Structure formats: structure tokens, C-alpha cells
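Worked example 4.2. Below are the chains of a multi-component assembly; read each line carefully before continuing.
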Amino acid sequence: MKIAIASGKGGTGKTTLSVNLASYLAEKEEMVLVDLDVEEPNSGLFVKSRLIYEEDKFTMKPEWVENDCTLCGNCQKVCNFHAIIQLGTQIMVFPELCHSCYACSELCPTSALPMKKNKMGKLRHYHGNNLSFIESRLGIGQEQAVPLIAQTQEYINHHFDSDQLVIFDAPPGTSCPVIEATKDADFVILVTEPTPFGLHDLKLAVETMKALKKDFGVVVNRFGIGNEEVLEYCAQNDIAVLAKIPNDKRIAERYSRGELIYKHHPEVEKQLGYIVQAISLRRNGGSK
Amino acid sequence: MKEIVVISGKGGTGKTSITASFAHLGGKEVVVADCDVDAADMHLLMQPDFKNAEDFYSGEVANINPDECISCGLCREICRFNAISVIKDQYVVNNLSCEGCGYCARVCPTKAITNESLNVGQRFVSATRIGNTLVHAKLGIGADNSGKLVAKVKSDAKKIALESGKKIIIVDGSPGIGCPVVSSLSGAHLVVLVTEPSVSGLHDLKRVYELVKKFKIKAACIINKHDINPEMTQSIKEFLMEENITHIADLPYEENFTKAMTVGQTIVEYDQDSLRTTLIESWEAIKKI
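Applying the procedure described above to all two chains together yields the following C-alpha cells:
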């Protein structure tokens, strides 16, 4: 079973929840935690374990072979992303605009644009204390997070059985990287905070999950600040509130040092217990 | 004209609250651009009128006409995005997976596939309660091309600033280091980094600053919630020194951030104490850089 932890707004506590929930569950069974926030992966700062495997990840981009080219101009014509331009007798490829669709390469009559590996980031696999932790990290200056997220999911599917409990720490927002990080999930946990920003971005995240036809629930973090509107919204829209993690400066301090929270805050441990119940229900009852 | 972009790498560091305070302090002198199009929140504090709305089209999505499709399967074979599947014996495109490359339409032997341009969101030019102009956007659910929408918001803000003789554009950027951030950085004159003293705050600050360096833009930094971890605050300051980043101010862990937001105000309106003073001094310092 795959559980994605997501949010519209950044900084609501996705990583905090992901690492604490995964470590809490790992006390009882073998767990997998995957950091899919490839632009700013943070889970690894909280997980202390041993590196067991790493590999570079690549996207495929066309490379012009001048000697094979007849300058027919077809590549430029078929590229919807303006990533190939013919300038006089030169073909120029702009890898940052390329989406690796292969159209230019495969439709080239003389095969003058073979696809070549282009490094976009690195995947690392750690293990320790019942917990497999997989992190992918996008290279600085690489703009497209989606291919790296997709390849990381492939790695997970290849290395773990489908009945293995896997937690994905997803990127913030509602656009393509979030879709990619949640589309394989059986259950999505949306982390929010009870503030106007939290509510506004939660609504966007809920719309996204509905568009993806996902089973989802909400965790309210920093409960006690702001106002009641997030809870009212969830009640009115029949959205399950799985847990409420209290607002506490000591939690922020502990987080700032890269420590796990639940071991020192019984209330947080209790709230994690509620989330585990919600997960078990879905696991035993079969996910939607 | 000066373009000041506020980013953070990590989300939830207080970027938007601080940017909105600057927008308030800048008042009629500034044009404000909310480039966090994925989760745009600036309007909650600025109460814009959403007057001038424009649909934003970017990219395409493939569509298969079932009457002309002969189920040869070629489109599915060549699609690198697994966007084509067979449902009840019919080839269909999954819009959320389709990248709009158009390859399938080019190879379809019966020309059953067409590309339709994609409405990815809306762009607004609004008058705010503060008396300035806010250019903002709402990205469609799961839409691609947020970087292009950011570019559109920025270029419209620039146009307005030029036409109305405003000297400063304040840009609220998005978290991360990917395409929307790259797009909000291009053409900027100053980057204000809002960070917090946590292991993740510093980690993300370093990554996003690597990106800023590639653009060769001057940078300044505000450390928010500085008192939650004094040692980490010290490490951040050392990093700022090493990298020659101007350290603007330290702000305390302060629930007035949330309280101001809850009543729809910026911090400089809500807080009447040292937080307000520090933000005013910060804004003056930023203007001088």
C-alpha cells in the first residue's frame, strides 16, 4: 500500500509527518519512506541510516550529429517545445526546454539526432532500524522534477512488493510534480495548518485529489493557532480529519535540530496512532 | 526599475507574510507580482478586485477521435509519458499525463489525433486595498507550464510598472528550485531569501542559493524564527558571510504572523511593536541595495 503525504502550501509539516509516521510504524514492521520532493529533499535530515545503494538518474535528450544531418528542418518542425532550432547550417538543441518525447529523434529521416543520456539527479537508498529510505535529488539548474519523480517510483515498484507499506513525502503545490508524486498512491494525507493560507491551499489540494479520484484525509498541523475554518471546511465537505498535531514551540525547536518529535511528545504519538488506525482500516478493507 | 524577488527554497518560512508587508510598506510606489502560482496566497492579504482577468493558454493536449481511430496502437507505442491507454477497446488520452508533445498526432496513420491548446489558468491584474496593483494568477489543477504562467505574471507586472512609472516590482516566488523558481529569477535585480534556522531551512537555502548564483543576482537574507535555534541561526549567518549575502534582519518566532493573516492583514498593520519596526527597517535596507 502506498501513502502519499502532500499539501498545497509549503512548510505545513509534510516532512515532519512523513519521517515521524514512518519511524513510528518502523517500530513494528519493515517500512519504506521515499522523499519525492526532489527539488528540496529534507526527509534525509531526520533519518539516520546507512547508505546501501546510489545511482545517477538520467533523462534522454537529442544530440545533433552534423555529418548525418541533411538540414531538412523536420526536427524543428516536430518539436512542440521549441527545443530545437535550425540556424543556417547549424541545428541547436536546448536541453532545458526538451521534454524527452523522442519525436525529433525518431522522426529524423537520417537518424542524425540520437538520444543521449543527460544527468538530472541522483537516487540514494539507505537502510537502518527497519526503515528503507529512498531519496532523489534534482541537480541544481535542472528545471523538470517530474521525470526524476517518475523514475524514483519505478525504482520503488521494482524493489518492493505491492503489499509493502510505502510512505511518499510529496512536493508542495498542485501542479505537475504533485500529480506525479501522488498518482500511484492508494491513500493521500493532506497536511495543512489552521490559517487562511492553510485553508486556501488545502482547498486547491482537495480539488486536485478529487480530480485524481484519490482517497484522502486531512491532518491539521500546528493545531491551536489561527481559527476554526479548516475544521469547518472539512466538516462541511465530508473530509475526514485524521489527526490534529498541536502547535508547540518546543516541537518547532526539536524539528529545527533534525530530531524526531513523537518520542518526546506523547500527544503527537497519540495523533500518529489515529493516522495509523486510518491506514489500517484502508489496508484491511482494501483501498478504493 | 528594480525587480525584487522573494524566495525561500523551503516552504512555510514566512515568505508571503513578509512579502505582503513589503508590498504594504511600498504602497503606491510598487507593483506586486504573486509568482507562487501553484499556491497563490498574496491576495488573501491584499484583497484585490480580480478585475482584469485573462485566460492563459500554454501547451497542448492530444485528443483521439474514436470515429477515425483504427486501434493500431502506434500512438501508445511511441508515447513516452504513458498518457495513452485502452479503455473499453478505445484508445484514450489521459490529460494529466499528456505533455502535449504532439508526437502521436504526427504518426497517427488515420489523422485521428488532434492537439488542442490547453487552458492552464487565469491571470489577474487587480487593484488592491493598499492602492497598488497586484498581478496574480490561478493555475489550473495539475497544470503543467507553471513556469510560463510565472513568466506571464512577471512580464505583465513589468509592463504596468513601466507604463505607470513605478520604480519597484516586488515578486513573491514559489518554493523549490524548479521551473517556476527559475522563471521568477530571470531578469531579477535582487533576491531576498527568507529562511528559518532549522536543518531543512539551511539545507534548502544552500540549494536555492546555488541556483541564484547561476543567475549572478545580488542576494539578501532575512532569518525568520531566529530564536527557535540560536546555533543554527549562527550557522546561517556564517553561510551568509561566506557567500557575501547581505544579512538584512532576524525576526522572532512570533504568533502575530498567524494572527495578522487570520484577520486578513499584513504584519506591519497588525503588529504595533518591534516586529513592525524591524520590517520597516528591513524594507528601507532592501530599497538601498
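Take a moment to check your reading of the output against the notes. The CA atoms of residues 40 and 137 of chain A lie 7 Å apart. Chain A touches chain B through 59 residues (CB under 8 Å).
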